């Protein structure tokens, strides 16, 4: 888990809705991390907030958006949904529409027409309901965003595949780029020391493990701990506090790989499995390169 908090956007032109929602969500946590609630009172304000949280084409730190249908116009919320999907190209943000006037935007027609995750009346927006939507939405956004991000990383490495040096340089460049916002500044809420050790050689690392000595020392400490099996080839993983070590066993197809990530909290099981699938592909690329 490489985030320090999760971002939720509330879009509504009624101040009371913001106040009640903020109170209801003030103690919400997902994976043990807090929610940061952003408020907007119009379509344009919401776009500005989303742009500030944007990392690149199709990617955003914003996990969930709760959007009122009727604001400055009767369909401002619906227009915002279209803008998010069609102009910003953001397919991972989990969007839930809320309305106090269901007759202006019937549920079935809205769900059929717009790419959203849910629809509810404001009368249904109890604390328990908000908790369920936000927690489920954050989980889905993180899973989808991580999966897409690792796919993009692999795609960026393929042109460099004939050369191990080229792979290492492309890897380091991508990892650094993924931690800055559109202004080129360090993105808020992202904190993840990590490193790649291939065939017992330090290849790339960030933050606490940007140099070989501390990375190799921590790797050796974790190798001495009990490990869980991931694959019949001999792949294994170890979790020690917030630190994750995934080992890809050397085979005729894969190079031997140790990958370490220091998260903000211990990783859930599914995160380990997503990284494992990516790392097997990475190890195969490295095996073929020279």
Describe this structure in words.
The protein is an alpha/beta fold and 290 residues long. It has two domains: 6-140, Response regulator (Rossmann fold, 3-Layer(aba) Sandwich); 192-288, Beta-Lactamase (2-Layer Sandwich), CATH 3.30.450. It is 40% helix and 23% strand. The chain contains eight helices and 14 strands. It has helices at 15-25, 43-52, 76-87, 107-113, 127-157, 164-177, 212-223, 269-288, and strands at residues 6-11, 29-30, 33-40, 54-56, 59-60, 62-68, 94-99, 118-121, 194-198, 201-206, 228-229, 236-240, 243-248, 257-262. The strands form three sheets. A six-stranded mixed beta sheet has the order 2-3-1-6-7-8, sandwiched between helices. α5 (127-157) packs parallel to α8. It is elongated, with a radius of gyration of 21 Å. It starts with 5 loop residues before the first strand and ends with a helix. The relative contact order is 0.12. The model has no long low-confidence stretch (mean pLDDT 90).
